[in-house]
Design brief:
- The protein is α/β, with parallel strands linked by helices.
- It contains 12 helices and 12 strands.
- The protein has 2 domains: about 130 residues, Nucleotidyltransferase, domain 5 (2-Layer Sandwich); about 180 residues, ATPase, nucleotide binding domain (Nucleotidyltransferase, domain 5, 2-Layer Sandwich).
- It has a 5-stranded mixed β-sheet with strand order 3-2-1-4-5, sandwiched between helices.
- A hairpin with a 2-residue loop joins strand 7 and strand 8.
- Helix 5 packs parallel to helix 7, helix 6 crosses helix 9 and helix 9 packs parallel to helix 10.
- The radius of gyration is 20 Å and the shape is globular.
- The chain binds 5'-O-[(R)-(carboxyoxy)(hydroxy)phosphoryl]adenosine and zinc ion.
Length: about 350
């Protein structure tokens, strides 16, 4: 079964082709440079960029993989959660394709797709505990199968990636700043007393990162010499040297440790609460973070559970994860009619598929 996947939920436009669970090809265009000027994603610009770029990526993908449109069995599209205007571009494009080629339509939950994506490169073992850490979400799930996700915990305020991005903004790092914090943190030594690990002194599986973000902002405001005077470029970050680089690396390492250790505590708690699981899956943009990867590797070892950590290219938004999750659904007979709705951030994505018997 051949599936086209379409991803337009935020600031990456991406398409991919998956056949019988194997990736045939993919194309991705990031809008990072467009939004970097504003220090964050501008929704209206994001939608327009998707509209401009998506048809070209689709044509290129088909040409490069030698695929005729009529040979696509199903079109899988990220239907939420995300920026509504951006999602609508992908969803409308998918519906148009289905109408013209007769392919089946499959709406994919973007968050589930992040967690299922590692199935492209290794076998997924269920039941699994899933940790999704992205720019918009921090969720833990008990994943019983590719279509059965039980939400265990979620952030009450900022997502982990949002905390990275906001701290990066306070420091005037280039946008999006998560990976610069990661890089500098690797050079510094964490002071574990410097910043709080919020919302851990309770039995809850939920997260809270806004207090940590504020604590870092307060520290940085009290040490203004740490901040780049204007928004840095990757080159100015690379060129930073001497004592300032050392101190900044220390702040990044301390913040990064607070995030990673908070996630460790809550995931360990969720593992106990969920009962026996066959694997721990960590996914989303923040799963690219070196310290988090190290922390989760240690946690899985200590708890004697297999760890699934996607390759770096599968961590951030991409089309392959949508095509793969769509393939899992379509293969089991799940699909959607042409009235499929896009679901904005903050709303639960309904399990409103139809099942072919
Ligand atoms: O999953 P994703 O590509 O988009 C969403 O669906 O949100 O995640 C993007 C997030 C951003 O907040 C970005 O700063 C963060 O992932 N990120 C990182 C790293 N690479 C990306 N955060 C920490 N360390 C990294 N290496
Ligand atoms: Zn994402």
């Amino acid at each position: 079964m051949r599936i086209l996947g379409i991803e337009t939920s935020c600031d990456e436009t991406a398409v991919a082709l998956v056949e019988d669970g194997r990736l045939l090809g993919e194309k991705l265009a990031t809008q990072i440079d467009v939004h970097a000027l504003f220090g964050g994603v501008v929704p209206e610009i994001a939608s327009r960029e998707h509209l401009r770029v998506l048809p070209r990526l689709y044509r290129e993908l088909l040409a490069e993989t030698g695929t005729a449109p009529e040979t696509i069995d199903a079109v899988a599209v990220a239907r939420g959660p995300g920026l509504l205007g951006s999602l609508l571009v992908g969803v409308s494009f998918a519906k148009g394709l289905c109408l013209s080629t007769g392919a089946a339509l499959v709406g994919v939950n973007h968050l589930w797709a992040h967690l299922l994506a590692p199935g492209l490169t290794e076998e997924l073992r269920f039941p699994a505990l899933g940790l999704l850490v992205s720019g918009g979400h921090t969720h833990t799930y008990l994943i019983k199968s590719p279509t059965e996700f039980e939400l265990l915990g979620r952030t009450l305020d900022d997502a982990a990636g949002e905390a990275f991005d906001k701290v990066a903004k306070v420091l005037n790092f280039p946008y999006p700043g998560g990976r610069y914090i990661d890089e500098l943190a690797g050079e510094g030594k964490a002071d574990r007393q410097l910043f709080p690990r919020a919302y851990i002194e309770n039995p809850s599986l939920d997260f809270s990162f806004s207090g940590l973000k504020t604590a870092v902002a307060n520290y940085v405001n009290a040490h203004p010499d740490l901040v780049f005077s204007e928004m840095a470029t990757p080159e100015t970050v690379a060129a930073l040297a001497g004592e300032k680089r050392e101190r900044l690396a220390g702040v990044c390492a301390s913040f990064n440790w607070s995030v990673a250790d908070t996630l460790r505590i809550k995931v360990e708690r969720a593992l106990r609460r969920a009962g026996p699981v066959s694997s721990l899956i960590v996914a989303g943009g923040v799963a690219a973070n070196s310290l988090l990867r190290e922390t989760m590797t240690g946690l899985a070892r200590e708890n004697d559970v297999a760890l699934t950590l996607p390759d770096l290219s599968l961590c951030t938004d991409n089309g392959a994860m949508i095509a793969y999750a769509g393939w899992l659904l379509a293969e089991s007979g799940y699909g959607h009619a042409l009235d499929l709705e896009a679901v904005p951030r903050g709303r639960v994505v309904p399990e409103d598929w139809t099942v072919r018997v």
